[in-house]
Amino acid sequence: MIFYAVTALLLIVSFMADRKKTLKALKISWKKFSNIAPMFLVMLVLVSITLYLLPHELIREYLGEEDLMKGMGIAMLLGSIALMPGFIAFPLCGILREQGVPFMVISSFTTTLMMVGLISLPVEKAYFGMRTALIRNALGLLIALLVSIVTGLVFAEVVI
Known about the structure:
Elements: H1 2-17, H2 19-53, H3 56-63, H4 68-81, H5 86-98, H6 103-115, H7 121-128, H8 130-154
Helix pairs in contact: 1-2, 4-6, 5-6, 6-8, 7-8
C-alpha cells in the first residue's frame, strides 16, 4: 500500500508541475500496458494451470529441501531454457515458495532465467559470435550458482 500511496502522491506532484507531460506519459503507459496485458494474462493462466496440474508432492520431490543440489540443478536447467518475463517469473516463485521450495532453489531458477538463455543462443551467436555467447551464458550460470549459495547462507538453508 505504501508504494501505491507514494506513486499516487508523485503522480499528483507531476500533474501539478506539468499537466500536458503527465497526461502524455499516462497515455503512453496505458498504451504499453494494453499491449502487454494479453500476453501477461495468457502466461499467468498457463503457469497457473501447470502448477495446478502438477502434484505438490512432485514439486517438493524435485525442487524441495531433501536434495538441494538436485533442486538447484533442475531449477537452473529450467531457468536456462525458459523464456519468461520477470513479471511472470516472480509471482511464480512466490507460489513455489508457498509450496515449500527453498529460497536457494528459487534463486537458482530466477537468476538463470534472467541471465542465461539457451533458447536465445542462436540470436546471440548471430550478433556476438558463438564464443562470446557461450562465455556470457557460462558466466551467467556461474553467477547463478554463487547467488544461490549466498541466498542459502543468508536464509540458513546451507551452513558452512
